[in-house]
Specification:
heterodimer; A: Lipocalin; nine-stranded mixed barrel; 9 strands; 23% strand; B: alpha+beta; 4 helices
């Protein structure tokens, strides 16, 4: 998250809506607001362009534990089933209101550098870069190089794929909102950094919208009949940082964990 | 080799992942008109996959584990590092249980340029200021900034290095420095130091073919710069999937066995 005073980069990012490469087809742009809504005016071009580097935009309260967005999706507990509650009770997270020391945590990311997966990666306090191509909206997270590839070319979910750390994501535009639908998760990740669980039946819907030129909001709906008694929602907010780039951040560089494990990362069990 | 079968299986699945809202690219052009299909040489986007000919034996496919058929010109230091390596690939391969390849027991990142040697595709995405290579394997990202910025000397040493690029006519010239020394240069244990400097000349030679000519320079490891040529073919109806090292069952089995040795 280093600040780079690069005027040229600012210009490029801000002009991304206008300066796309010549291969942009009509599929890259969602239907204009006129086609869908009865609004008298259509949304500006930037409303359909999510490109740029975005970072958490929550107010900074006094204490770290109040900053729920760096370890869970919302302040309130999700409505867990008995199975879900049991998994949560067994989690020894290093974050939240009842954290364990790092050497005692059973968080798979901190024990063995397992991928944080989706949607957990949203909660790691590092920026993300959104890149749009004619057939995809790709979110590149700085943390652990995670990738959230949302295919917007009309394809259905790919049922041939085995269960995935990041799920299988497809999306479509509803006016100026990108609606992404993700299924086909494996069960090797925590939903968040506190140990809230999910099963392989997790289904995540994101409604991603650029609320104004410099701000992005993601409204989540989480659904998992095995882990939660009903779907529940959460919202994360982001601000554009036109001078930032996403850098490299690999779990293996976190020397705390290396020291903990005698300079060696344990293989995933 | 499990990785090969796995990689081939992934490749097989991907062949059938058609994009329903197909552009003109879904059907490869007929052989006769291949060279004539128009394309923008400054547009490198798409999913690309190794395009070497397939010889008879796996061992002949050097490009699946190293950059050149012959040995690179190593210094004494480089040769010592190479001799100490116990790779699981190549003509002097060790069993997985004995390899000291950092990737296979601890799933550390492959880094750059080793990531090119995995038999899995990559996708190129372009923005006004970057050319980004997204590798299927282990979510690696090679971000080449083309907006005129200089190398960022404030960054610590990186697994993928720090890459800046510019166009020389139809060729994207990418320059990468600032590597850490935690990776092998390839899958057979050839070394590099933090002084590694990689120059790529990337060019879309026709609609369906891309080449990346690498120049590898590292005065600590190699007596002189040396080059490698990587050809790629466009896979217009492929997408890149997810492929994490942690899913490779063979490594889990080996480490479980090592953790609980048999008492026979």
């Amino acid at each position: 998250m280093r600040n780079r005073p690069l005027g040229i980069f600012v210009a490029f990012v801000c002009s991304a809506a206008l300066g796309f490469s010549s291969t942009v087809s009509s599929q890259s742009k969602p239907p204009s607001a006129n086609a869908k809504s009865s609004a008298a005016t259509s949304a500006p071009a930037w409303a359909y362009d999510l490109s740029g580097v975005w970072y958490d935009d929550h107010p900074r309260p006094n204490s770290v534990t109040e900053r729920f967005w760096i370890y869970k999706f919302r302040p309130e507990e999700p409505p867990m089933t008995a199975w879900g509650q049991a998994k949560f009770d067994a989690a020894k997270s290093s974050f939240g209101s009842h954290p364990y020391p790092l050497k005692d945590t059973n968080d798979p990311v901190y024990n063995s550098c397992a991928p944080p997966g989706f949607p957990r990666v949203y909660l790691h306090p590092f920026p993300m870069q959104i890149v749009q191509t004619p057939s995809q909206v790709i979110i590149l997270f700085e943390y652990d190089s995670m990738r959230h590839q949302i295919y917007t070319d009309g394809r259905p979910h790919d049922t041939a794929l085995g269960p995935l750390w990041n799920g299988d994501s497809i999306g479509h535009w509803e006016g100026d909102t990108l609606v992404a639908d993700t299924v086909n998760f494996n069960d090797k990740t925590w939903l968040d950094r506190m140990g809230h669980p999910h099963s392989d039946q997790l289904h995540v819907i994101e409604r991603i919208r650029r609320v104004d030129h410099d701000h992005l909001a993601v409204d989540f709906t989480f659904e998992d009949a095995k882990a939660f008694t009903k779907p529940w929602t959460a919202r994360l907010e982001f601000q554009m940082y036109p001078k930032w780039t996403v850098q490299e951040y690999f779990c293996e560089d976190q020397t705390t964990f290396q020291d903990m494990e005698n300079n060696e990362v344990k293989p995933l069990k | 080799m499990k990785l090969y079968r796995w990689g081939a299986a992934i490749a097989f699945v991907m062949v059938f992942r058609f994009s329903p809202a197909a552009s003109a690219q879904t059907k490869p052009p007929a052989e006769a008109s291949k060279a004539a299909t128009s394309f923008d040489p400054h547009d490198l986007s798409g999913v690309w996959f190794d395009d070497h000919p397939r010889p008879m034996t796996v061992m002949q496919r050097y490009w699946a584990y190293k950059f050149t058929e012959g040995e690179p010109p190593m210094t004494a230091w480089g040769q010592a590092q190479f001799d100490a390596a116990k790779p699981s690939f190549g003509p002097h391969a060790f069993p997985l249980a004995e390899t000291n390849d950092p990737v296979y027991h601890t799933c550390t990142p492959l880094g750059f340029p080793r990531i090119f040697l995995y038999p899995l595709p990559f996708q190129i995405a372009q923005t006004p200021g970057e050319v980004i290579l997204l590798f299927e394997y282990d979510s690696h990202r090679h971000q080449i900034y083309t907006d005129g910025r200089a190398h960022d000397t404030s960054l610590g040493p990186l697994w993928m290095g720090d890459s800046v690029g510019h166009w020389e006519g139809d060729t994207l010239v990418a320059d990468t420095v600032n590597f850490n020394d935690k990776t092998w240069l390839d899958r057979t244990g050839h070394p590099h130091s933090v002084s590694l400097h990689v120059v790529e000349r990337i060019r879309r030679v026709d609609h369906d073919h891309l080449v990346d000519d690498l120049t590898i320079e590292d005065p600590k490891a190699y007596t002189k710069p040396w080059t490698a040529h990587l050809p790629f073919i466009l896979k217009s109806n492929w997408t890149i999937a997810e492929a994490f090292c942690e899913d490779e069952q063979s490594f889990e089995a080996i480490d479980d066995k090592a953790a609980a040795p048999a008492k026979k």
